[in-house]
Design brief:
339 residues, alpha/beta, six-stranded parallel β-sheet, 12 helices, 36% helix
Length: 339
């Protein structure tokens, strides 16, 4: 996965520092931990995710492929887009085949964040047919999930184009795949909210209930927050929002509020502080109206938890059957679709 130039936005942290959630600089100021298109993922996260996926699939004991495909058969394959959208996860295919033995060469024709069209070749593979087929589903699963998230993210970013607001993701990611899900979000042009529970303070309804109210929760956090970590508080009513304003919260999340309520709170705030974030059941059809209330950010959990898988196919053509001499890939033999 490649990193491209970050979009600048007021009060965003340094992307290089923000990409490392263990860096204290990433934990201060804005809850936007990564700027759009900062899509590089730590190699360890990719390796670990691929390792677990191949183990889950028992790739070392693919009886169907081992029994049906003669050893020594070589092939070429194309990964083809079956819809328009935004791609993410391109580097994972090479990691899948590296872990399967390293004999398959994966060539990327697109980069994370690229817009692609139906019928476009995204990657090509060359090597042992057995390895290509065994790794196919694992590679496509990552590509389909990450590209689906990137495509959904891009749709939300486009929906608020021209407005001074930023779309954020949430922690509603697939367990164990958060680094990949958030990289896909960034590839689609949307910012990452906090990466984990240690990245910033976000007081939600259960924290507030257990602490004894909005003001009490904010005061309790301030008593411990000696590192200047960013603090945000979620409110569910105008009364709670007013309480948070009086408590001088840095960020206030307006959860499941009406357009009229959000406009009122924006007007009540008056200045640019505190920052206001809208959240809760926001869809493509409503996000622009929410943005027009004057909030600074809008978080959308559906980008990661409900994005449809991106439609892809892997088309394989044998180039050398076991015991035969090599023949050109362009010999007119039709590619076979697997999936």
């Amino acid at each position: 996965m490649t990193s491209t130039e970050a979009h600048e936005y007021p009060n965003s942290p340094d992307p290089a520092a923000a990409s490392d959630s263990s860096n204290p600089a990433a934990r201060q100021g804005s809850p936007w931990m990564v700027a759009p298109h900062q899509t590089a993922v730590a190699a360890g996260a990719v390796e670990d995710a691929v390792r677990r996926a191949l183990a889950e699939d028992r790739a070392e004991d693919d009886i169907t492929t081992r029994w049906a495909v003669p050893d020594g058969t070589r092939a070429q394959a194309r990964v083809v887009a079956r819809q328009d959208g935004v791609i993410a996860g391109t580097a994972i295919t090479a990691e899948v085949y590296r872990q399967l033995g390293g004999d398959v060469v994966a060539t990327e024709h697109v980069q994370d964040g690229d817009r692609v069209h139906t019928g476009q070749d995204l990657l090509t593979l060359a090597g042992p047919a057995r390895e290509i087929i065994t790794g196919e589903r694992t590679a496509l699963n990552f590509l389909q999930r990450m590209s689906g998230i990137a495509t959904a993210a891009a749709a939300f970013a486009e929906a608020v184009a021209g407005l001074p607001v930023r779309i954020l993701d949430t922690r509603k990611t697939a367990p164990g795949l958060r680094a990949l899900d958030k990289a896909a979000v960034a590839a689609g042009g949307v910012s990452n909210h906090r990466l984990d529970l240690a990245a910033m303070v976000l007081l939600k309804e259960n924290h507030i209930a257990a602490a004894g109210g909005v003001s009490a929760a904010i005061a309790a956090v301030r008593a411990h927050n000696t590192q200047g970590i960013a603090v945000e508080v979620e409110v569910e009513s105008t009364a709670q929002a007013i309480e948070a304003l009086h408590a001088e919260a840095e960020w206030i999340m307006l959860d499941n509020m009406s357009i009229e309520e959000m406009r009122y709170i924006v007007a009540l705030r008056g200045t640019e502080e505190p920052r206001l974030e809208a959240s809760g059941n926001i869809t493509l059809s409503t996000v622009r109206s929410v943005a027009q209330t004057g909030v600074d950010a809008i978080s959308v959990g559906g980008i990661t938890h409900s994005a449809p898988a991106f439609d892809l196919s892997l088309l394989l053509t044998p180039t050398t059957l076991a015991g035969e001499s090599p023949r050109a890939a362009a010999d007119g033999r039709p590619g076979q679709r697997f999936g």
